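Quick review question:
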């Protein structure tokens, strides 16, 4: 896959970087930990401008985050609460949980989005609860944009500095991302097993 990404980025330039970072939000096997260091490496060889590479990657990634935000906004807390009432065990939430989460996100959502965009495997997921909680679009884009620029800028700069060793970035970050995914999955299983429905919610 790395060879294909290298060829595509080399031939497509900034639009390819933006497209790959957008797809990274839709298709996890395309990791930003590969795309942005690769763009930084291309910049170190004079094939790209580092600031424009960061801008392109950030724009593509933010577009993908905004799409997931839109999906969460379409679901909304009311619809999610209805789903939780019918399928609470598999969603691992009750209608009361949805209401409490919405209140928490209303108070702390900005920080959650900002930090979440800096964490592998959480970067995409954080957009959905932001949409469900109906965080104002301008606020979501501000916090998500700052986090996205910091993340893509960090990866591209490391790729620029490491040059031909840019692949080491993915080798360093990838295990952490896998551990986070595994922890999220195990946490989900634990919540399914230990789920206790609310007083008005049937166990399923």
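Suggested answer, residue by residue:
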């Amino acid at each position: 896959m790395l060879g294909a990404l290298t060829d595509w980025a080399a031939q497509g330039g900034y639009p390819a970087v933006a497209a790959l970072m957008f797809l990274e939000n839709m298709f996890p096997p395309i990791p930003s930990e590969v795309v942005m260091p690769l763009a930084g490496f291309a910049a170190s060889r004079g094939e790209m401008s580092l600031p424009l590479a960061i801008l392109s990657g950030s724009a593509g990634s933010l577009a993908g985050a905004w799409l997931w935000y839109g999906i969460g906004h379409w679901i909304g807390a009311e619809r999610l609460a209805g789903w939780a009432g019918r399928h609470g065990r598999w969603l691992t939430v009750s209608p009361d949980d949805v209401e409490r989460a919405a209140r928490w996100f209303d108070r702390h959502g900005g920080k959650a989005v900002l930090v979440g965009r800096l964490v592998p495997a959480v970067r995409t997921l954080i957009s959905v609860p932001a949409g469900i909680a109906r965080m104002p679009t301008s606020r979501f884009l501000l916090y998500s944009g700052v986090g996205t620029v910091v993340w893509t800028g960090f990866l591209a700069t490391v790729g620029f500095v490491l040059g031909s060793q840019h692949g080491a970035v993915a080798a360093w970050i990838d295990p952490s991302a896998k551990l986070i995914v595994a922890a999220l999955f195990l946490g989900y299983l634990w919540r399914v097993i230990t789920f206790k429905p609310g007083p008005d919610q049937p166990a399923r």
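Why it works: The chain has one domain: 2-21+33-194. The radius of gyration is 19 Å.
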